[in-house]
Amino acid sequence: MNGALIIIFLVAAFALFLGLRARRGKDMNLEQWTVGGRGFGALFVFLLMAGEIYTTFTFLGGSGFAYGKGAPAYYILAYGTLAYVISYWLLPPIWRYGREHHLISQPHYFAHRYDGPALGILVAVVGVIALVPYLVLQFKGLGIIVSVASYGGISSTVAIWIGAAIVTVYVMVSGVHGSAWNAVAKDILILAMVVFLGLYLPLHYYGGIGAMFHAIDAAKPGFLTFPPNGQSLVWFQSTVLLAALGFFMWPHSFGSVFTAREERTFRRNAIVLPLYQLILLFVFFAGFAAILKVPGLTGGEIDLALFRLSIQAFPPWFVGVIGGAGVLTALVPGSMILMSASTLLSNDIFRGVKRDATDETVSMLARGLVPIVALVAVWFTLGGGTTIVALLLMGYNFVTQMFPAVVASLFPTNRVTKYGAFCGILAGVVAVIVISVTHTGIGAILPFLPTELKDINVGFAALILNIVVTFVVSALTQQAREAASHA
Amino acid sequence: MSAIRWLAILPFLGLIVGVAFFNQVEPLVLGMPLVLAWIVLWLIITAIVMGIIYACDPANRKTGADQ
Fold first, then answer.
1. Structural domain boundaries of chain A?
2. Dist CA A265 CA A279 (whole Å)
3. pLDDT digits (tens, 9 = 90+) for A387-428
4. In chain B, which residues have their Cβ closer than 8 Å to the Cβ of A98?
5. Complex prediction ipTM
6. B50 to A78: CB separation less than 8 angstroms, yes or no
7. What number does CATH give the domain A3-384?
């Protein structure tokens, strides 16, 4: 057993310990398990919200994106920042409504606000379909990190089973408390690690950040700016805007809003989180540093850029520390996704159908579903398959379809009816599937657009269709309701 | 507050519109390509803008529990 492996194991064991310990002194009823009894202070809420930034996707994918694609990676910095600006006004009213009506999940909010159980079920089904591939992504990342950081000592299959077992156990026992405590450990470790790597690697290999970018620019002209087409400026602009709207529409992010003790937390977070995004800059630096030093990674391999370079640069024990940090970036979001998916299945789909189910039944069922959801995700992770990759690409566009109905629900007089919201979301989701499966670009839908605008993120087409359907159906059903009440 | 609130448009202008005018590598700023430095600058401006909005928002002045 090498030094790296010992450290990764220690980190994993510590995560399990923290996750189990988080339960102490809590009576784990449904509200405690899902939203921490609405008692989380500023730090926990901050870390749960920020949890979205530092997933395996950003750790491996962010550096890999910078390594493989260059400038387009910058979009990751921008969309979160704009999402936080929106959050200043978006989250406090959602939180207030949630506290008043004891809501614990996103579909719960829809069902209650629109007085439409069927709408709640639809939102929950779409949520689960988006969440499971996202969980698969975390498991996949975990497998890669452990197998590379252990120098092949542990196969990714074994790592995935162990990782899945750890999150399953602590989610069942501690719910969101386990995620919150592990988020503290994760963010401390990842922060230190990423800033160090982002500064050390360019300095060590190139003599500085400026020298590194000069070298890359000389070797690969155009790589550090947005290309004229493909992932162009227009792609950047539209993707940033679209992703900013969808950011808090992920069921686990939306659900974590309800954990806060007071609403000011969200407004304060909106100041600090943009600065927290800056940490990603160092992830990019590490990815850029790898370009000329471990060249030739292509396809899915680009995600390994950071690790391949680290193995070259550092002794095994330190690779183990990086690996440990990487494991936590998979476990924390993984636990939130797992809990969220189980809550959706139990509280929103099961109770949506069987309306008289008690909190105790729903709570038992939610916890019982945790290992099942985890097994399904492991099965998809090990089975691979193209379906899951396709679903993953659709996931973000799926959850973004919730945005119009959420925003409409915040106005004093909501013109959107439950039928409008239902049809709009359904139309948007179907549009996303059709567009993704047929690989349609915006140019095919709107052939009259000038060439420069053909790189607009095609997700906008689905969102606009959603908005149109929402308002048309709402107008029709509104009239029908008024006519009925006048008759 | 109502007028200050409109400052929140600035990050959108800077990050989505402004970026189009700075899509170049040279000159490097703090070692970063110009377009990346521009985005980083706007992350910092966004934090400042949100800080100003927070300070001017009467909703944040109440002490103790909300409402």
1. 3-384, 401-487
2. 21
3. 656 666 788 889 999 999 999 999 988 889 999 999 999 999
4. none
5. 0.91
6. no
7. 1.20.1730.10
